[in-house]
Amino acid sequence: SSLSGGPAGIFTALELADKGLDILIVEKGQDIRDRIAxxxxxxxxxEDRVRNVAAVGVAPAFSDGKLTLTTEYGGNLDDYMPxxxxxxxxxxxxxxxxxxxxxxxxxxxxxxxxxxxxxxxxAAAADLSFIPARIRHLGTDVNGQxxxxxxxxxxxxxxxxxxxxxxxxxxxxxxxxxxxxxxxxYACRYLVSAPGREGSEWFVHEVTKMGLHLTSNAVDIxxxxxxxxxxxxxxxxxxxxxxxxxxxxxFDDRIRTxxxxxxxxxxxxxxxxxxxxxxxxxxxxxxxxxxxxxxVSKKFTxxxxxxxxxGKYIANLANILGGGVIVQRSVISSTVAVDAGTDSARPRSxxxxxxxxxxxxxxxxxxxxxxxxxxxxxxxxxxxxANSRHTLLMREAKFYSNRLELSSVLETKIPNFFxxxxxxxxxxxxxxASAAGVTVGxxxxxxxxx
Length: 450
What we know:
Layout: E1 2-4, H1 7-16, E2 24-26, H2 32-40, H3 46-56, E3 66-68, H4 83-102, E4 107-108, H5 113-125, E5 128-131, E6 135-137, H6 140-154, E7 159-161, E8 168-172, E9 175-181, E10 184-187, E11 191-193, H7 200-209, E12 214-215, E13 219-228, H8 233-239, E14 243-247, E15 254-261, E16 265-271, E17 274-280, E18 289-298, H9 307-322, E19 326-329, E20 356-357, H10 366-382, E21 392-398, E22 403-404, E23 417-419, H11 430-448
Parallel strand pairs: 1-2, 1-11, 2-7, 11-23, 19-20
Antiparallel strand pairs: 3-6, 4-6, 5-14, 8-9, 9-10, 12-22, 13-18, 13-21, 14-15, 15-18, 16-17, 19-21
Helix pairs in contact: 1-11, 4-6, 4-11
C-alpha cells in the first residue's frame, strides 16, 4: 500500500499497521518532531514554514484539535454513507484520539441544555441558524503530542518518507500502478491519495490526466475576525465553537462562521508564497481574544471549474496591495482601516503573525463585503459588541479541491485508488478527514481478507 500523509493518511495507516501489509507513507513536509521544532523556532527559514503548511495544512499537528463530534458539519462524508454509519466512525475516531492522549480533554455541549436552547432562540430572532455540537477541544499543544504518539506507534510498522513530494501518480489502462518520486517508481496494490489543501491543485492536475470526472465545490472567501473574548463568552463557554449560518438579505448568499478559537491566537500561513491567516488555540496557554472566520460560500455554474485558482487570485490580490496580511477594523464602515504605523496593524493575539493596515474593500468583491457586513450585524444581535468598530478583520480564504466521483468507500473509478481528506474536496476538518482514513483502511483490510 502506498499512502500520502495528513490526518486521513495517518488514520488509514493506523488501521493497516500490524496487519501483514507493506505500507509506505510519503510525506511532503517534515516529520512530526521536526515540524514542531520548526514551528517553535522564530528564526526558521520561510521555506521551512511553507513545508509545514504543505505537509499537513492546519489539520493535524498545528491546528487546535477541535474534534467536532457531529455529522452536521466538518465535511461531506454523509454524501457517501448513511449518517448513522458516519456517526459510528466519528465516535471511533474520537476514541482513537483519546487513546493516544486526548482522554482528559473536555467535551463541550454535553451540559447546559437550557443555555443552548436560549442561544438557538436568540440566533433565530437574528435570522441565524445555530448548530450546536459536541466538541472535544484538544488544543494545539496537546494535539501535537497526540500526533507524535501516533507517529511513534507507527514506527517500525510502516515505512515513512518525510521531506518527500510525490511527483506523479501512475495509472495505466485503467489500473493504478504506483507513484513516481524523483524518477524513482514505487509500485503498489492500493493507492490512497490524501494530499491536503496545499496539494489540492496538484491532485486535480494528476487525476484530470487519468480522465476522472470532477465537479466544482463551493468557493469559500471571507475574513478572520478577532475580538475580545468576553464578547462571545456566553456562547463559547457553553459550546466552545459556535457554528452559525446566515443567508444575506442582499444576495441570499450562504455565510457561516468557521474555526472558532476562544482565547486563541491568530497565525500567519504561507501557502506556496500566498500569505493568509488562520487561527488556533492551546490547551495550556490563553489570550484575551477570540478569533474565527466568516466565510461566504459561492457555488459557481458552468463554465467555471477552477475554485482553487479563484481563491488564490483573491489571496494574491491582498498580498499585492498589502505586501502580506491586511488588517482592518470592522466593516461598519468598509473604508475605515486600522491606523497605519500603530500596534493595531498586528492582530492583538498574534502568534507569529504580522499585518499591514489596509482596506479589505479593495480586495474582496463588493458582494462578499456586503455579506460579511450583514453577518456581523446579525452576530451583534446575539453577542453585543461583535460589530464594534474595534473588531479586527483579516482576509482569509479556504482552498478546497474540486470533488471526484467516489464510491461509498471513497474509491475512484480506478480500482484500488482511493481519494480522501480536504485535498480531495470531501472533508473540511480533522474528524471527518480521520474518519475517511478509517473508511479506506477498513475497506483495504476487507479486500485483503478475501
